[in-house]
């Protein structure tokens, strides 16, 4: 395939041009002779239909393979515009949509476009658009591994009054409201609206299982939408899927913010004259799943020490891609902002599993809160059929294997199975150490 070849335009030249009526062929030739690329030759208007078709195809194939992108675009725009009926013509119907890109996602990567672009224009009443496509043998082979490859319909809004390549970059996924999507007369039941109908909070429509997986068999997408004030552009793409586990490994390998870097940020913030630095109480539980954080993450642009669990965050955004920090409600510009926090990871590694909060001092040192130190739970010792509950009010009682209650002190309670022998009744109460109250080193 030539470097500059456009498969869709070539298919139009080879298959569509021979079917055009003579009047359309002549009108197309006149327009090309008048407004077409100046470097190409003049097309004769004499002769029968077969001769007109051959001359026009030769001209267009030469234009399609030209290294001059402006010449290719001019020739393509002219012939496509002449083929449209008056009802089909609009500001965007003949526009070159190839600069269109979508905001990246960690969950899929676009491999190639399968269908033509289809414009859904703003309407005052119910409208219907049809997108036809055919799967090639390579597509079918790839879709046989559904965990790796999927066919997804992408859609985004466009402003037809201000169309330019720059306005088509990093577009958010968005479908017309209250739309109905059918693929090969089977209804798509997934969500097209997202969270509170905000652009970018829904996923492309995965229609893989509704496609006809036969080489070159015609597939049809029917999209029906009611009165709509905006225009949308759609196309079907083949994408490669990434799992949450794979994304986590990428973050661990390439996106870890080391402990020293985090400490440097903390110290820089504490030295800021405009900020009154105080200690912070930081939770070790994720604000999303309310469980202990296992994979501490946050945006590299967020200034708070508090982290959330990255796995939980990714799973939620896999379903509804809002990409909003649950700590400060800041929307991430790109998922690549997500980092593994080495400082927070170090805290989780050093504290016991039952500790759910720490106090972070202004210099980056941290300690378990006093409330955790003073909290004293009954010790439960299990030995076969014997269960002994012990409580005490003084450290001296804990040090004595058989504490004697003093006046006003609470008596230790014991629950002992009396069916045991005297040898089995003997036991030694373990000595409990007081939690270390000194701050941990950075």
TrEMBL record:
| Domain PINIT span(s) in chain numbering | 87-242
Spell out the residue ranges making up region: Disordered.
390-442
The residue ranges flagged as biased composition, category Polar residues, are 411-421
**Residues in coiled coil:** none
The question of whether Metal-binding is a record keyword is answered with yes
Matching InterPro entries: PINIT (IPR023321), PINIT_sf (IPR038654), Znf_MIZ (IPR004181), Znf_RING/FYVE/PHD (IPR013083)
In which pathway is this protein known to take part? Protein modification; protein sumoylation
**Which classification does the entry list for the species?**
Eukaryota, Fungi, Fungi incertae sedis, Zoopagomycota, Entomophthoromycotina
Instruction: List the keywords (alphabetical).
Output: Metal-binding, Transferase, Ubl conjugation pathway, Zinc, Zinc-finger
Q: What is this protein called?
A: Zf-MIZ-domain-containing protein
Q: Which organism is it from?
A: Basidiobolus meristosporus CBS 931.73
Residue ranges under compositional bias (Basic residues)?
A: 431-442
Which Gene Ontology biological process is one annotated for this entry? Answer: protein sumoylation
Supply the Gene3D superfamilies for this chain.
Answer: PINIT domain, Zinc/RING finger domain, C3HC4 (zinc finger)
Domain SP-RING-type, by residue range, is 271-357
Q: Which GO terms describe its molecular function?
A: SUMO ligase activity; zinc ion binding
GO cellular component terms, alphabetically, are:
chromatin
Q: Which family does it belong to?
A: Belongs to the PIAS family.
Q: Which domain of life is it from?
A: Eukaryota
């Amino acid at each position: 395939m030539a470097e500059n070849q456009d498969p869709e335009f070539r298919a139009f030249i080879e298959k569509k041009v021979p079917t055009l009526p003579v009047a359309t062929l002549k009108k197309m030739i006149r327009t090309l002779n008048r407004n077409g690329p100046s470097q190409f030759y003049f097309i004769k208007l004499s002769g029968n239909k077969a001769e007109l078709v051959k001359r026009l195809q030769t001209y267009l194939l030469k234009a399609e393979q030209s290294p001059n992108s402006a010449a290719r675009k001019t020739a393509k725009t002219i012939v496509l515009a002449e083929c449209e009926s008056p009802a089909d013509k609009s500001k965007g119907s003949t526009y070159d949509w190839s600069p269109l890109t979508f905001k990246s996602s960690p969950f899929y990567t676009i491999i190639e476009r399968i269908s033509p672009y289809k414009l859904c224009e703003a309407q005052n009443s119910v409208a219907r658009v049809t997108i036809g496509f055919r799967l090639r043998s390579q597509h079918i082979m790839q879709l046989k591994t559904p965990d790796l490859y999927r066919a997804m319909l992408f859609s985004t809004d466009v402003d037809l009054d201000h169309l330019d390549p720059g306005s088509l970059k990093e577009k958010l996924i968005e479908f017309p409201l209250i739309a109905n999507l059918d693929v090969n007369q089977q209804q798509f039941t997934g969500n097209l609206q997202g969270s509170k109908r905000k652009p970018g909070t829904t996923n492309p429509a995965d229609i893989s299982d509704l496609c006809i997986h036969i080489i070159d068999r015609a597939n049809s997408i029917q999209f029906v939408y009611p009165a709509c004030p905006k225009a949308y552009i759609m196309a079907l793409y083949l994408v490669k899927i990434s799992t949450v586990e794979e994304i986590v490994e990428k973050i661990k390998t390439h996106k870890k913010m080391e402990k020293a870097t985090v400490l440097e940020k903390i110290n820089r913030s504490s030295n800021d004259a405009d900020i009154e630095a105080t200690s912070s109480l930081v939770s070790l539980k994720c604000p999303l799943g309310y469980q202990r954080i296992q994979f501490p993450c946050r945006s590299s642009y967020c200034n708070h020490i508090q982290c959330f669990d990255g796995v939980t965050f990714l799973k939620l955004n896999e379903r509804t891609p809002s990409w909003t920090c649950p700590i400060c409600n800041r929307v991430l510009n790109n998922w690549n902002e997500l980092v593994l926090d080495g400082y927070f990871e170090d805290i989780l590694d050093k504290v016991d599993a039952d500790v759910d909060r720490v106090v972070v001092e202004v210099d980056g040192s941290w300690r378990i809160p006093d409330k955790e130190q003073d909290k004293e739970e009954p010790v439960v010792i299990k030995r076969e059929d014997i269960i002994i509950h012990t409580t005490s009010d003084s450290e001296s009682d804990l040090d004595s294997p058989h504490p004697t209650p003093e006046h006003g002190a609470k008596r230790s309670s014991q629950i002992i199975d009396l069916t045991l022998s005297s040898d089995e009744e003997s036991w030694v109460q373990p000595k409990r150490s007081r939690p270390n109250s000194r701050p941990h080193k950075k």
